Amino acid sequence: MVVTDLTEHMAKDKVLRESEERLRDLSSRLLTAHEEERKRIAHEIHDSLGSSLGVIKFKAEKLLGRIGKSDDVDDLIRTIQGTAEEVRRIQSALHPPLLDDVGILATINWFTREFQKASGIRIEKRLDIEEKDIPVSTRIVIYRIAQEALNNAAKHSQADLIEFRLRKADRIELLIRDNGKGFDLNRKVSEDGSRKGIGLSSMRERAELSGGSFTVESSIGKGTAILASWPI
Hints:
The chain is of the alpha+beta class. Helix content is 64%, strand content 16%.
């Protein structure tokens, strides 16, 4: 008969599990803090730069009305308007104000509409869920994963169609599938340090730290499907 004392081994396993839980909790807190900082910067850009540009544009238009038509002042007004639009773009990239004002569904509608115009890729969108069914803490995660997935598709997939689904079943499910060229998933995952690998890792990390799961399916010539889901 062989008797093995597993007490020390079990104690080490318990310490390891507790350490992993603390690390996940810390990572989640850091991710939340990161989003809060982006939100703060976006608000400061809106309140400071946006307001200042509005005042400058108003004064330039007032000057134009006083001196009559002037090509130089017209050019100045167009430059100010272009700068204001760029400031709004940067603000929305940092943290879309729609997310706080009207919710994730309206934000997705806005973002996919802007994405189609900029990329030329058609999106078939279906949102089978209500705003109240999505926890507030999960909304920014859904937006960031959708943002990263669509931007990756525009850069790398060569797709002309993307299927976008957000629905409530037994879980909250986000599916983004394109009809592009696809990729070798094993090779992509092993590309440590590459920007391509970081994109997938970032989406997976966001999903898992928010209590969800994340999977990717892709093969050469058959497009890519990204599925993230969260328990109800």
